[in-house]
Design brief:
five-stranded mixed sheet; four-stranded antiparallel sheet; 271 residues; 16% strand
Amino acid sequence: MNWVGPFAAGPQLIKALNEGKVDIGNVGETPPIFDQAARPGLIPEVVYLTGRTPTDGTSQGIVVKANSPIKKVADLKGKKIAFQVGSNAQYLLAKALQEVGLKISDIQIVASTPTEARDAFLQGKADAWVGGDPLLAAVENTTPIRNLRNGKGINIINGFYIGRRAFVTQNLQFVRVVLEEAEKVGEALEKNPSDYAKILVDEQKLDPAVALKVASRRTYKLKKITPALIGLQQGVADFYFDQKVISRKIDIKQGILSELQYKASISDNIK
């Protein structure tokens, strides 16, 4: 087994998966929806393996500089907002705008990778930035900012482990082992998130204080794919369609494995 990445964000990982460069990965709820919507008439190559335990939403945010005249989400109308299109940042922004009677079409999109979006914000090329950890935690540690809206109440899914259909269906037992180990590691890190903080310091060269904040705001355990979870994901897809963010209505169940395939690939330690 080889580790590939890290990727800038979910859309880049999905692209690598469709190209056969990745077999298993984890993303937020939005990237698989955008991928499926972009492939009309095709059975999605991306399949949902497990869910992820939701966070409290504080690891994401729509932020402005502390001295910005923008005081609330409604003030974003007509403003330049930097974020990764097709990622969970877009979902947070779209839902937050909906709460105040606005749509994505009411703002100016500065489409960038997460790092480029952060830089555009810090350099004053965007009025606001929608981002998440670890970039958000690092900016919070160095720059006076105001978080207009975090993901609380919006980030209720927190994404999925996904796989490449052709690989997963031919390697169900291998997938089972990978996910079982991921769940075991998650259980250990949930008990002691400082261990994950140390990994972030070593691998991503984060400041120890930033790494500890990131570790304390994320969740680690996996969740089985259930009708309820499928329904939540379908609700996200329908929201994007209703908001005219995606051009066609999609059926999430096209990316769901059969009951027998899930039974073979998901161990009992994942609830």
